[in-house]
Amino acid sequence: MFISQAHAAAEGAPGGGFEMIIMLAMFAVIFYFMIYRPQSKRVKEHKNLMASMGKGDEVLTSGGLVGRITKIAEETDYITIELNANNEVVIKKDFVSAVLPKGTLKSL
């Protein structure tokens, strides 16, 4: 008498193990396509940008400075940026957010 009731209650229990595995797999797929993949793409593009910078390029830093690269130290990953004829700033390559088209400094 009690065994049949216990067996019936166990069958009607919500949320089995297989459904939980499917739900976790769906969250993993959503996490990959919405968070991980776009971030890794941005990191790859930024590394290509840092590798392609050269002397004379006009750049925008993450701090908002706009200037022309005058010197690149490959071994230390620092660059010297000329803001105008009198001011030069030394920053790390990682802080360059964009390489601007030629002539941007003259138009400012």
Poorly predicted residue ranges: none
Counting helices, strands and paired strands, the structural category is alpha+beta
Q: Count of helices? A: 3
**What average pLDDT do the residues reach?**
87
Share of helical residues: 40-55%
Stated plainly, the CATH topology of the largest domain is called SH3 type barrels
Number of strands: 5
Strand composition percent: 25-35%
Q: So what's the overall shape?
A: elongated
Q: In CATH's first tier, which class of the largest domain applies?
A: Mainly Beta
Radius of gyration: 28 Å
Organism: Vibrio renipiscarius
Main location: membrane
Family: Belongs to the YajC family.
Keywords: Cell membrane, Membrane, Protein transport, Translocation, Transmembrane, Transmembrane helix, Transport
